[in-house]
Amino acid sequence: MQYPDPGYNHTPAYQISGIPYVTSSTAAAGQPIQLNFPYVTKFVTVAATGGATTIAFTSNGLLGNNKFTVPSGQTLTLEVRVKKMWVTGSTFSVAAGLTGIPTASIPNLTSSFAFSSSDPYFTGSNAYSNVIVYDGVG
Question: Are 63 and 31 in contact (CB under 8 A)?
Answer without folding.
Answer: no
